[in-house]
Amino acid sequence: MVDRPPPFPRPDVATDVMCDASNGGRGSIHGMPVVHQFAYGALNPVAGFLLACIGSLIGLGAAAQARETRDRGRRFRWLVIASIAIGTGIWLMHFMAMLGFDVPDAPLRYDPLVTGFSAVLAILVVSIGIFIAGYGSRSGARILAGGLFTGGGVAAMHYTGMAAMRLAGTIGYDASLVAASVLVAVIAATVALWFTVTVDGRWPRVFAALVMGVAVTGMHYTGMGALRVHLQTDAGPVGGINPILLVLPITVIAAAALIGLVFTALQASAQEDFEPAEPARLVPPPRITAAVHMGRLAPTRADPSLADPSGVVRLSRGR
Description:
Elements: E1 16-20, H1 43-68, H2 72-99, E2 109-110, H3 112-134, H4 140-163, E3 165-166, E4 169-173, H5 175-198, H6 202-225, E5 227-232, H7 243-274, E6 288-289, E7 291-293, E8 296-298, E9 316-317
Antiparallel strand pairs: 1-5, 2-3, 4-5, 6-9, 7-8
Helix pairs in contact: 1-2, 1-5, 1-6, 1-7, 2-3, 2-4, 2-6, 2-7, 3-4, 3-5, 4-5, 5-6
């Protein structure tokens, strides 16, 4: 009789297991699923998409106000509001989707400092991109430059957030899918900036926010498809915080931030309505010029029809 190997690895033997997250979020240890992208079903992607849309909608409204004002201080204020709103929406989409990621065969934890840094990074890169594209004169080159910078930064935010994960093993990435996710991020950021500096009107802004939400969500899950997890049974204890414990504080902070942005935008709009308009620039009256010609005044313009042969002086207005 031939001894057959046990169906599962023995706990006293170190084993490496590769989990491919690109095949619908399922890897296997002897056919068992080990990676879930949608551990709670459609809740996480739908909630993340809505958060990205809300942040984009607030940001697009603030950007529209920035385009309408000619005062540099007011434009700066509106662009800051737009940057924080869009950057916060992008990061909340990322975090909400990450809550749906799970490896049942290994405990999953997060480093709170790296997670917080990824949020700051998202707002920072979006701010720089929006100011590149929207603070000066509008041009295609500025939008492309801002989109390239912002897209690369959003991709960096995504993989920084992924680096905050802690599990019993190591994490790797498929290079081709990483490149695809960066490309998607750059295209999404360029489209978002184009919407930010051009779209006006309520329903066009709603449509633009939906497009931006789809683009951000697509970039996130393209990047998640590049994930490769290598589990190790002898990796030791896993440090970090359970992601469920981060839900309440981040939800409270995010809700306070979005509500604060809305009230700040309303206050800024009301303040501009009650502030006196800029004084009109005084235009000097037309200059009247005359020249002495043959003992009497004659108009300086070359048109001979302006000259009065009766001697009555007709003065011409200079341009």
